[in-house]
UniProtKB/TrEMBL annotation:
The keyword Secreted applies. This is Carbonic anhydrase. One of its GO terms (cellular component) is extracellular region. CDD domains: alpha_CA. Residues 32-285 form the Alpha-carbonic anhydrase domain. It is found in: Secreted.
Amino acid sequence: MLKPQVDEQFGMKLPTYLMLGHMLVSCRVWASDWGYTEENGPKTWKKDYPIAVTGRRQSPINIVSRKAEYDSDLKPLNIEYLPEDEVKLKNNGHTIDIQITQPGFLTGGPVGNQQFRLAQFHLHWGADDTRGSEHTIDGEAFAAELHIVHWNTTYGSFAAAVDKSDGLAVLGIMIESGDVHPGFSVVSDNLDGLIQPGSTDTISSSLDPTDLLPDNIDDYWTYEGSVPIPPLYESVRWIVFKEPVEFSHDQLNALRSLIDSDGNPMQDNFRPPQPRKGRQVKASFQ
Ligand SMILES: [Zn+2]
């Protein structure tokens, strides 16, 4: 089924071609106004999204561990997810999205008593294992980065929360190449039907988002940042775990076999670190 691409997760802005009518839509169904190539990649986003350079809290950043300030007031995170009965996958042209239907919640840590609801998770990865994460730690990039996205229930919906200064909370998990991750296999083993941008599939296997967290969720860095894809809303409370998790080389290669909205292998779909602009990164540990 042909369905025009709308960035359901991070923006309500319809690609311009949608305004031009159905004929054009049918010609360029999967065109997108941004991507990760030289022509439409992060260096060019400022043309359509000036906040890319004028913003005060853009993401990702390089986290300098010795400059992060230990904050003894940071309480443990309270993460309550439920297993999904089936797995809803989508190749949105920029990444693979896993939509969550069960009510899962994040509270505690830097968000305190505010309640954030789990919406989806997705990843960013490199063409090889030497790069791919959006955040870097002391200048080191990881092979991939998993983003678990939540919205502030104060706003009633993801769409209403996405552009509010405290609208989203995203857990960032660094991925290293190593052992097979059994909890991610239900995604990485089921990408055959998701190769083309716009593809969706529902896999009748269970998935527990909790399995994707590192063993140690007590040690994390946190700062105020943005959605790292257009429209780059400055709405994200970032929580980046210190402990990475491992995916196997084959699991990472399965992601690299997807095709993006430019018709290229979906690889290097990450934004590089942005200026910190005086922001203080806090650490839950010392
Ligand atoms: Zn992301």
